[in-house]
Amino acid sequence: MPTSKQLDAKYYMPAFGRDMEIVRGRDCHVWDSTGKKYLDLVAGIAVCSTGHCHPAVTAAICKQAQTLIHCSNLYYVPGQAELAAKLSKASGLGKVFFGNSGAEANDAAMKLAIRATGRHEFVSFEHDFHGRTVGSLACTHKPAIRVPFEPLGIPCKFGPYGDIEALKDLVTKKTAAVMFEPIQGETGVIIPPDDFLPGIRDICDDTGALMICDEVQTGMGRTGKWFAFQHSAVQPDIISLAKGVASGIPMGAIIAREGLEFTRGEHGSTFAGGPVACAAGNATFDVLKSVVPKVAAKGERFRKGLAHLNPRVRGLMVGFTAGEKSPAIAEYCREHGVLINVAGGENIRIVPPLVINNREIDHAIAIINEAAESV
């Protein structure tokens, strides 16, 4: 009988570099195909916000799957309006539209900006990541993944991340929106200056461009508030989210301010906001209500424990620069039962389940420190 690795090599497009098979997960731990247990500080890249197979989320998924798995958006979908209401109230914005991923959410945000402004140009930032679909890729800076597919048909200019003065020269009366990450995740948890979001808001207000805040990785409590923009005093026009929304069931969404919305026929999706995804999303939200207030303190525990590595911390987004040693550090941690991620720019990224406890945090800190010293 061929192994998964053999079948993968023969039948699956080699778009990913991988050499380990995860077969089971529970809380903040996963097990590979050999039976080895790991403390998971990757969490599906900030996806498994409630941990692996949280009983409340699993029960909600199973219950819904036994009742109705799919229902077209031609009809009211069980749980969809309820989840939209929760996200709207948590964000302080207006109406929601669901998708199936972060890239889809960013595409929807871009479409809504074009529709609302009548403009077709965008501005984003160096090292921002917004997705790999044709629309979202146009606003994703990394040349290695964007340039081979150009022209993408959507003009986008890129400025230095965090530099408001440079942004003033890029945004014009032709700009539909400024799209940005409030914290850059794929680059290794890069936190901008405090005046960054207020500066974007002012520039957008002056030019009539919309402000699109990509909360795909930072949303759903990851930074210690429901959304990262809430650490500032400003409100974007549109936010996109995905990863942590439904604990691993594919789901994305945009939330737009009052008065900014798609009307009938302007956007759609067969699978978006389906019954099972919404059941997972509602259960996830309800679990996180008691978890989010504790996230900031957990982040500070990481900050203190990894202080000599000069970590960048906002809630349970933790990153530090390790240079060319990053892969060796990640490999040492993996060998010792802790999974971490090498992000861009030779940075380590740590985005564990939000339900991680202090004992698990302390164990992670000990292994990461060992790794940093050993390599």
TrEMBL record:
Pathway: Amino-acid biosynthesis. Coiled coil: none annotated. PROSITE patterns: AA_TRANSFER_CLASS_3. Its cofactor is pyridoxal 5'-phosphate. Gene3D superfamilies: Aspartate Aminotransferase, domain 1, Type I PLP-dependent aspartate aminotransferase-like (Major domain). InterPro entries: AcOrn/SuccOrn_fam (IPR004636), Aminotrans_3 (IPR005814), Aminotrans_3_PPA_site (IPR049704), Class-III_PLP-dep_AT (IPR050103), PyrdxlP-dep_Trfase (IPR015424), PyrdxlP-dep_Trfase_major (IPR015421), PyrdxlP-dep_Trfase_small (IPR015422). Keywords: Amino-acid biosynthesis, Aminotransferase, Pyridoxal phosphate, Transferase. This is Acetylornithine/succinylornithine family transaminase. Belongs to the class-III pyridoxal-phosphate-dependent aminotransferase family. It comes from Methanocorpusculum vombati.
